[in-house]
Automatic annotation (TrEMBL):
Residues 97-343 form the NodB homology domain. InterPro entries: NODB_dom, Polysacch_Deacetylase. Transmembrane segments: none annotated. This is Polysaccharide deacetylase family protein. It comes from Geomonas oryzisoli. The lineage of its organism: Bacteria, Pseudomonadati, Thermodesulfobacteriota, Desulfuromonadia, Geobacterales.
Length: 343
């Protein structure tokens, strides 16, 4: 057994024991409405996509997601961002903690797989849109890279691709198998310039030209339809999805104001607009500008629950993805950990 799966097995077992010993219920009862939970999802994919080199941290399968919905409905008040109004004054009676589901990036699989399940279980969700990508065929560079790797595997040319990457980044610990190389390369490229990344992608296309798949992101029609259902609301994830901390103040301001104006022009947000930091990176400048631009709140990727008095521009979330939440035991462990460790 690999160390990773052994660790996951232990966490899953610990989570199951804590759940069956009713420890989880007791903790939630104690929390009541003094803290709330915001969950972070990215993609919801059918199990058939699992072999296709998707980053573990980016998806849960449809089966896992439906199990999450059933579990969450049993233990939480599932609400929307509007439920944060007045949350600082917890109800005197013990309520179940509030939980808000958020989805980053506006992937088209949200419409195909998550939305029907949310409707079936009547669970609200908040989706953050990077407006430059919605309704276009544009892709994140990380997804273009993944598709190149997937194409090379399909063509039986993965060894060639891996060798090429290793020649280009001789000092980088890339690992051996194709999934490990892709993972390490994706992490490394986050700190490279857009030009460097684009040049690498062009050179890898010499090994494997990917097929032209359908667009990765939602269309505005899908956004309108889901908004009209009253179940799904939307917020800004900037325009370009660049990390705000890598931009000058002027550029940050345009990312904030232009994305908000686009969402308003499409009629998919009200007066109060929520923001989500691309890649989770934020600093004081970004926070000050968000407040100046009139945003209602902003979500980070920092792992934790939120006390009701939390700074609205630096809200914690608990990220859920297949490798950390594929069983109820793992899910319980994932939700309890920041409470027990006081994060
Ligand atoms: Zn994102």
């Amino acid at each position: 057994m690999k160390t990773g799966s052994l660790k996951a097995g232990i966490k899953s077992l610990a989570g199951s024991l804590l759940y069956h010993a009713r420890f989880f219920d007791l903790v939630l009862k104690r929390i009541g409405s003094t803290r709330y939970l915001v969950l972070m999802y990215h993609r919801i994919l059918p199990a058939s996509e699992q072999g296709r080199l998707h980053q573990e941290g980016m998806y849960v399968t449809t089966d896992t997601f439906e199990r999450h919905l059933e579990f969450l409905k049993r233990h939480f008040r599932l609400g929307s961002v509007q439920d944060l109004v007045g949350v600082e004054n917890p109800a005197p009676e013990r309520q179940r903690p509030l939980c808000i589901l958020t989805f980053d990036d506006g992937w088209s699989d949200f419409y195909d797989y998550a939305y029907p399940l949310l409707q079936r279980h009547e669970v609200p969700a908040l989706v953050f849109l990077p407006t430059d990508y919605i309704g276009t065929g544009r892709r994140f560079w990380s997804e273009s890279l993944r598709r190149l790797f997937e194409g090379a595997v399909t063509a039986g040319r993965q060894a060639e691709l891996v060798a090429m990457v290793k020649r280009r980044f001789p000092g980088l610990p890339l690992g051996e198998d194709v999934a490990a190389v892709l993972e390490a390369l994706t992490v490394h490229l986050k700190s490279c310039s857009a030009e460097e990344t684009a040049s690498l992608l062009r050179s890898l296309e010499g090994v494997a030209v990917p097929a032209t798949p359908p667009p990765d992101f939602l269309t505005w029609e899908q956004v309108h339809e889901m908004r009209a259902s009253g179940l799904v609301s939307f917020g800004s994830h900037s325009c370009s999805h660049r990390m705000l901390t890598s931009l000058g103040a002027g550029e940050v301001r345009s990312e904030l104001s232009d994305s908000r104006d686009q969402l308003r022009a499409h009629g998919v947000v009200g007066d109060e607009v929520a923001f989500c930091f691309p890649n989770g990176n934020y600093d004081d400048t970004g926070v000050a500008l968000l407040s100046e631009e009139g945003y209602a709140c902003a979500f980070t990727t920092r792992y934790g629950w939120n006390p009701v008095t939390a700074d609205r521009y630096r809200l914690n979330r608990v990220g859920l993805h297949q490798d950390v939440a594929r069983s109820d035991g793992l899910l319980v462990y994932r939700l309890l950990y920041p409470l027990i460790m006081r994060r």
